[in-house]
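User: Show me sequence and structure for the first protein, then do the same for the second.

Assistant: Starting with the first protein.
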Amino acid sequence: MRAWRALLRRRELLDRRILGGRIYVGSALWALTAFGFGLLVWGVGGFVHRDGVDPHWLLLTLAASSSLMAFRRTHPGLVLLLSTGVTAVDAVLGPSTMVVFNYGDAFYAVCAWGRRRLAYGTLAAVVVGGVAVTAVMVYLLVIGEIDYPLVVLQMIGVYVLVFGSPVTSGVTVREYRNRMALERERTQQVRRMAELDRRNAIADERGRVARELHDVIANHLSAIAVQSTAALSMREPDPERVRRILTVVRDSSLHGLSEMREMIRVLRDADDTPDLEAVTPRLADADRLYAAAREAGLEVRVERRGTPRPLPGPTDAAAYRVLQESLTNALRYAGPKRVEVEVEFVPRRRGARLRLTARNRVAPAAAGGAGRADPVWAAEHGAGAGLTGMRERVDLLGGVFAAGPAPEDPGEWRVCAEFPLPEDDDAAGPEPAARTAGRVGAAAEDEEAT
């Protein structure tokens, strides 16, 4: 690990720019190395002697070509152009080995760091040049200007070594670097998508927990609030009525505490996604809702239509919560305290679905006057957290939800929810006995504790 970190630090040092960003540290070191090695090669006679030419002139072309290597990454096209001129002068004076090597490195730099069009144009030019050199050498061999085929192979090998190999290496490095950049970008996109999915999952889970908490707390606390208000409004003591009120308050507290405990247990025991439906009552438990609402002073009329059938777990739980919230709102705002509930199982021939409807008159204080629906009242009740929760539950199941004043009677508040049902009854399994047993057991424990 330490070796890798040291290597990374060295790489960062070599990629650092100096002299106002014109030169990379790595390129400057490469230029110095090329010049030093070129001096060594010149010292051992690594150049072609020409009559009447002082070998010291070759040191100038060596210094020029090595200096150009310092700009190989920042200005590769210009370096190749100037290197071509320096190499031509060196060929007239010598040539020398290191200048030719630096010229090949200029081709590598263009293909590795130059613009795409310049890089692949250079590759095409080298390929065309290789074909031309091969054709000329073969032609000279055929007409007898070259005596041995080995000479032809040697010249082709030199061309490949000086031009072909650097260009091929540069293009390979360029493509590898492009693939790595694409992979990094793809990895970043995957991370962004994963983070977005995580945030959406958290938001969805928070919304689900918020709906459950609201439905559990609001229903029971509303009953407690209504009964407490009734007790406080009594002008003369009535022990029997006070006893009935306290009984309703006690039962609502016990039921709310029981459901809250079950929800907390599920949230604590869940590994990833808590199964809140495991502690949510079902539509079959709606009679308990009706009884609690009646005890709280609300007149509840229930009408059932159609043939009941097994419901999917999410639909069953959502239907119960819609009824619970509708009764809660009726208990708070209805005037007189009366609500009509319709539970209809629409048959398959008409499109299998479950339709829930709750109707109640609006108290004059809330409606802005007897029989008159005030816009402020409608907006206030239409933006409540309970209505939002019901709408979200129905929408998540692909159903249709509507709540507001009835078109034909603005003084009536109507809640209507439709849930699509599967065509096959086997798709909706019955409620596990453990869920009902758990809820009944928790309620019994709270009853004993009091």
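Switching to the second protein now.
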Amino acid sequence: MKYPSTITILHTNDLHSELDNWPAVTALLKERRRHALKEGHDVLLFDIGDHSDRVHPMTEALLGKGNIELLNAMAYDAVAIGNNEGITFSKNELNHLYDDAAFPVILTNLIDPSTKRSPEWTIPSKVITLENGIKIGVTSATVPFKQFYTPLGWEINDPIEALDKEASQLKGQCDYLICLSHLGLNQDYKLIDQVPEFDLILGSHTHHVLEQGEHYKGTWINQSGRSGQYIGEVTLTANGEGSLEISNIGSIPVDVTKRDSETENLLSRLNQRATCLLNEPVTMLDQPLEVDWYQDSTLPRLLADGLRTWCNTDLAMVNAGTLLNGLKPGLVTRGMLHEICPHPINPVVVTITGEELFSTMQKAETADMIHFRLRGFGFRGTVLGKMMYSSAVTFIQEENPIDPRHVMINNETIDFNRQYTVATLDMFTLGKLYPAIRDAGQTDILMPEFLRDILSWTLSKVNLTFGESG
């Protein structure tokens, strides 16, 4: 380091395409940047991933490239990728997501098996040299969801091992070492335990709001929530010995009433482009396809049948709450399907015994599960809703609890000792909702298709002429 300096680091994380908030986020970022520059500070700006989320129609239609335009407009110095960038786009889409990025994408732990190298659109680290000679080293890693990256054609490596290797090479080249971590707070603690070289971790993924940062074993961590409700700010000041120390760290609430007009205008143009693309027709309906979260209804049943056919399984099961609304008679467009099924959820095929299947059915029929308000795992709905089965499954009589003697699969009573292939939702392979599905001996997540892609395919293939409505 040549000269004393003060550095302001601004950062964002986990916007999840809550784009209504983005003009307020950029207004605050611009305000804090102007203030820091006026005070004579150097200013750096980073995003720590999950800026994109295909729940938003603009992100869906433009395949994330609109999000890149929004980041470009703010002159980010570097970004990390989150799981929403990494596993909700096909390999080809991800390979071209950052074609027009005006910033480096820093990532250490993603490998293309076809080349045995990191993808060309990434760099493992960057040393940013400020005007006064101070060198800031930056590296990054993302959460290693192998069960999703592998079927997409990627190899995802252990992030801490990858960061350890990169930090060892960087430490002698820079005055201050930063990790952009899309790993989550608990993993950030583990990272510090194993890689003490980092001076600062800018975190994400678990949506924690660290109002004044957190100091753990000599390393500072900052993370700033979700959905553009906060931005992060860190101030580094040179001490008497010439090394950098944190003099201010924390998260600043975003005032949604203060909005940046340039961002709003850009966002409006992007939304107009998206609307044109989402007007693509899928099918025509003569009669409505209804959705009821709490009892049998037409569209969830149709989706379950389509899922079974597409996956070629013994049966399929889909909770009604994945469909946020039904479809009216008339033209059905791609945008309408995204509106009623916005989740980044993929189909999955699991092989389980009849006994495990029945225990899953029993749990699914309970009021607790039907009314369960799920958050996370890709679910963007309100409640799970009633479990709907493909027409291969019939119940001889309505009863609660259900009796295995009255459960028929392909016209045969369910066999507790038989292995069944079940098409369902990838979110059930995570967490504690349905242990039999989560712990299935064979699990195949089918990617890159989302549930709405299966719905679109089903609607375009099935004869949906119901005759004249009365």
